[in-house]
Design a protein that fits this description.
There is one protein chain. The chain is an alpha+beta fold and about 210 residues long. The protein has one domain (about 5-205). Helices cover about 30% and strands about 40% of the residues. The chain has a seven-stranded antiparallel sheet with strand order 4-5-6-10-9-8-7, sandwiched between helices. A four-stranded antiparallel sheet has the order 1-2-3-11, sandwiched between helices.
Length: about 210
């Protein structure tokens, strides 16, 4: 997994800067559940979860999972500029586009990586707006299997934060398959107006696994 460090630079370092001024603080946990893993985020007043369904999941580092030989990166990024209250569809789109552009500017100006062929479109998953976006990585004429050719992203708003799901597109991948991989995860997203007790949820999931 040599490309992990590069992916970390592409999103994690820039997201640290973006997240500094977020008001509502969330903690997160990765928990094993029947059939896969559950990612849990909770503050004192809100929470959300999403699931990764697979019998072959290996945590790599914070925010990364190896899922059936595919890397999944998930980041949760807050900023005071994001509005906490309910907003219109157009406002949501504006904020998600601003997040995408922020990341792309960081990649181009700070990391000096010349991405190309940016494509983005809007998708609705379970009545929630997502920005699907992907782009080509700098060409590597010596690329072999495992070389990252594209970065595929799926972004949405959760409690004045952006949740971004990312997977690298490798030489022998299918773009449609990678987009479907992210979509299936997004379909499990559940938002709650209450705090989740990590210990209680862990016990509940362990009990379900034994049944």
């Amino acid at each position: 997994m040599k490309f992990l460090s590069l992916i970390s630079l592409l999103v994690l370092l820039s997201s640290k800067l973006f997240a500094q001024s977020a008001n509502e603080k969330f903690e997160d946990e990765l928990m094993e559940e029947k059939g896969g893993a559950k990612i849990v985020y909770s503050s004192d007043t809100h929470s959300f979860t999403f699931d990764v369904i697979s019998n072959k999941i290996k945590p790599q580092q914070t925010g990364y999972l190896l899922v059936d030989k595919k890397i999944l990166q998930y980041v949760f990024i807050g900023n005071n500029a994001l509005q906490q209250n309910e907003i219109t569809e157009e406002q949501q789109k504006t904020q998600l586009l601003a997040y995408m552009q922020y990341e792309l500017d960081y990649i181009k100006n700070d990391l000096k990586l010349n991405y190309t062929n940016l494509v983005h479109d809007w998708v609705v998953i379970n009545n929630k707006i997502y920005l699907s976006w992907y782009y080509d990585m700098p060409e590597n004429k010596k690329a072999k299997k495992g070389a990252v050719l594209k970065q595929c992203n799926l972004s949405t708003l959760c409690f004045a934060h952006v949740l971004n799901l990312n997977t690298p597109f490798e030489k022998d991948d299918s773009l449609d398959a990678d987009k479907e991989f992210l979509t299936k995860i997004a379909q499990t997203l559940k938002l709650n107006d209450f705090k989740i007790d990590f210990g209680d949820l862990y016990k509940e999931l362990q009990k379900e696994m034994k049944n």
